[in-house]
Design a protein that fits this description.
- With 199 residues, the protein is of the alpha/beta class.
- It has a domain of 139 residues: Nucleotidyltransferase, domain 5 (2-Layer Sandwich).
- It is built from six helices and five strands, in the order E-E-H-E-H-H-E-E-H-H-H.
- A five-stranded mixed β-sheet has the order 3-2-1-4-5, with helices on both faces.
- Strand 1 and strand 2 form a beta hairpin.
- The longest helix has 22 residues.
- The protein starts with 11 loop residues before the first strand and ends in a 21-residue tail after the last helix.
């Protein structure tokens, strides 16, 4: 059973990202402020929820949340500033969209760059503990998946409609066969380094 809140006084926003470990495409993040009585029986960490249920949850979250924001940082910026900073930047951009200023941020993970002097708590595996972080994980995941499905139309050989840019065997095989697309992250090791040839 997910906890609705970390404490009872301050207005909380949950934050999470999706796509940090992918070889291609953007990293996405969401920030969500939920009402005190929020409940949905399917809500959980997005990795524990089926794709069909994630989209059902997204509709429910967007219609019942006090406020939410979703943002992405693209592959080119990831290569420039690194994936960790890009993840934090996406969270900050998502927080910028909130219509109400939260008084406490619940961040999934163990690190965060402070945002606008708002106190924050980093919670490892927080998307399986707090409803607001779980809701943020659902929004970040579904919006990013939509982006990768759209990119799949231009580059079907990489099967992004199913692997969403993660380094699956089929994705790595396609990279070996077709090379990198314009949407691959050049700073990531998309293929194992070739062994040095013996002379």
């Amino acid at each position: 059973m997910l906890k609705n809140f970390h404490q009872d006084v301050l207005l909380e926003a949950g934050c999470d990202e999706a796509g940090r470990g992918c070889l291609a495409g953007p990293v996405a993040a969401a920030a969500v402020i939920l009402p005190r009585d929020f409940y949905h029986p399917l809500l959980n960490d997005s990795k524990q929820v089926t794709e069909e249920h994630r989209y059902e949850l997204r509709t429910y979250i967007e219609s019942t949340a006090i406020s939410y924001g979703v943002a992405m940082v693209d592959h080119e910026e990831i290569d420039v500033i690194n994936i960790l900073k890009a993840s934090f930047k996406a969270m900050h951009l998502a927080l910028d969209q909130l219509l109400q200023r939260p008084q406490l941020l619940l961040i999934d993970g163990n690190r965060f760059i402070p945002y606008n002097k708002i106190p924050h708590e980093c919670i490892i595996k927080g998307d399986g503990i707090y409803a607001s972080i779980a809701a943020a994980s659902i929004l970040a995941k579904t919006y990013r998946d939509d982006c990768m499905k759209q990119l799949h139309g231009s580059y079907p050989q990489y099967k992004w409609s199913t692997n969403k840019g993660y380094g699956t065997a089929e994705h790595r095989k396609a990279i070996a066969e077709f090379g990198l697309s314009p949407y691959h992250r050049r700073s990531f090791q998309c293929l194992p380094s070739q062994l040095e040839m013996e002379l």
